């Protein structure tokens, strides 16, 4: 059983600091992301530029997380690396205000996402080092909850700032520096650096090979699930198309955005609640496997091609629930399966596997939808979701004492 001190100690200054940092950092770059397509159009750059900017930045961030995970395990102190990442992202995002060509935005976005890649493994390792293992679910769930609150606040802030600045995109980009620097300050003043065991100086490949076998099996399940885990922006497209015959294109698009906001609310709540639940069951893997299975149910419902708003509401809620549990539980289960001195490498590798999954799923689901139909696309997703759930359910080495 948890002792009273263990039960009360998980929400400490580090957990609060990491949570506030995630909230304000996401607030900053989501404000910029909300107006980025319109800004690019205003400087004569079309959808191809937006796709290239997002694709290159995401790819760079993913590879950086893998390298940074290895590097952070070799450092005596991880906090300065994470601080640098947050500051670099904030400044790079605000630099959009001075862009006059699309390639300026590409450089700024790539730099911002480079900062995200650098800070991510270090932040997660610092968080895991300052909470007891039986509270990993709550700690990582709280961080995801705060991150999602920031993602909701960002677009709302963008709408308000556009009004008060007379629709000046450049002024809005400069304003993103405020929450970005608040994120840096939150991390600087609140997050503690806990000492960990001496870390052997391994090469990158030896570091990968040294990761525990149960964690590698977790990565297999995460990878197979990820290959079907389509971008949830596809849900907006799905809802818009299915509602258009009854409501018209304009109203269908508005309803779809409202449904996506509902999705984000459940995403935020699920991140913490699923983490809390995983701290109170004998095996954390059961909660993650259930989240993966819930994704399978969501994909099956999408195969129906429904035109009913009530069923679309259910679909968006389920999608929010499973994505929240997926993100919180993958991190907390990884932290539990890997020794603390290898946490940086573990979190970096997990991020890389998820990035590959995102790439594969975007190609797979998009191709099947275009070449065949929506049923083929989401049937493939459902099969991969359930396969991932089975692999996680059969995972060994994750038992914990309460």
What does this structure look like?
The protein has helices spanning 4-9, 13-42, 47-72, 79-94, 102-129, 136-164, 169-175, 177-190, 204-209, 213-226, 233-247, 249-278, 285-303, 309-337, 343-371, 374-393. The protein is globular, with a radius of gyration of 21 Å. Helix content is 79%, strand content 0%. It has 16 helices and no strands. It is an all-alpha fold and 402 residues long.
Compose a concise summary of this entry.
This protein is 79% helix and 0% strand. It is an all-alpha fold.
Task: List the defining traits of the structure above.
402 residues, 16 helices, disordered N terminus, mainly alpha, 79% helix, 0% strand
What's the topology here?
Elements: H1 4-9, H2 13-42, H3 47-72, H4 79-94, H5 102-129, H6 136-164, H7 169-175, H8 177-190, H9 204-209, H10 213-226, H11 233-247, H12 249-278, H13 285-303, H14 309-337, H15 343-371, H16 374-393
Helix pairs in contact: 2-4, 2-5, 2-6, 2-7, 2-8, 3-5, 3-15, 4-5, 4-8, 5-15, 6-12, 6-14, 10-15, 10-16, 11-12, 12-13, 12-14, 13-14, 13-16, 14-15, 15-16
- Secondary-structure element order, N to C: HHHHHHHHHHHHHHHH
User: Unreliable runs, pLDDT <50, ≥5 residues?
Assistant: 1-7
β content, as a range?
under 5%
Q: Mind summarizing the main beta sheet? A: none
Counting helices, strands and paired strands, the structural category is mainly alpha
Mean pLDDT: 86
Shape: globular
Give the tally of β-strands.
Answer: 0
Q: Share of helix among residues?
A: over 70%
Backbone CA Rg: 21 Å
**Total number of helices:** 16
Distance between the termini: 4 Å
């Amino acid at each position: 059983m948890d002792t009273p001190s263990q039960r009360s100690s998980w929400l400490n200054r580090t957990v609060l600091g990491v949570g506030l940092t995630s909230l304000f950092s996401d607030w900053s770059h989501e404000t910029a992301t909300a107006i980025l397509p319109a800004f690019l159009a205003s400087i004569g750059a079309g959808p191809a530029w937006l796709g290239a900017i997002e694709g290159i930045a995401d790819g760079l961030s993913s590879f950086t997380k893998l390298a940074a995970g290895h590097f952070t395990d070799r450092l005596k102190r991880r906090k300065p690396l994470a601080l640098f990442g947050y500051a670099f992202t904030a400044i790079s995002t605000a630099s959009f205000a001075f862009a006059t060509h699309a390639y300026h935005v590409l450089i700024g976005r790539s730099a911002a996402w480079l900062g995200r890649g650098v800070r991510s493994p270090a932040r997660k390792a610092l968080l895991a080092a300052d909470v007891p293992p039986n509270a990993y679910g709550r700690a990582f769930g709280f961080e995801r909850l705060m991150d999602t609150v920031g993602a909701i606040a960002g677009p709302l802030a963008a709408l308000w700032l556009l009004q008060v600045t007379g629709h000046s995109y450049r002024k809005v980009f400069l304003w993103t520096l405020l929450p970005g620097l608040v994120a840096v300050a939150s991390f600087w003043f609140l997050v503690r650096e806990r000492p960990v065991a001496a870390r052997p100086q391994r090469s990158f490949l030896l570091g990968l090979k040294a990761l525990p076998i149960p964690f590698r099996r977790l990565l297999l399940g995460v990878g197979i699930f990820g290959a079907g885990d389509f971008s949830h922006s596809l849900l907006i497209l799905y809802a818009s198309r299915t509602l258009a015959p009854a409501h018209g294109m304009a109203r269908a698009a508005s309803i779809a955005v409202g449904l996506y906001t509902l999705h984000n609310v459940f995403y935020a709540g699920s991140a913490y609640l699923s983490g809390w639940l995983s701290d109170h069951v004998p095996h954390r893997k059961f909660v993650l496997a259930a989240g993966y299975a819930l994704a399978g149910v969501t994909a099956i419902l999408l195969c129906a091609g429904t035109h009913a708003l009530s069923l679309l509401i259910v679909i968006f809620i389920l999608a929010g629930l499973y994505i929240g549990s997926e993100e919180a539980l993958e991190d907390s289960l990884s932290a539990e399966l890997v020794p603390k001195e290898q946490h940086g490498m573990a979190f970096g590798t997990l991020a890389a596997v998820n990035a590959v999954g995102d790439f594969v799923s975007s190609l797979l689901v998009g191709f099947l939808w275009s070449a065949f139909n929506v049923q083929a696309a989401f049937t493939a997703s459902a099969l991969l979701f359930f396969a991932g759930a089975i692999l996680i359910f059969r995972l060994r080495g994750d038992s914990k004492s309460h």
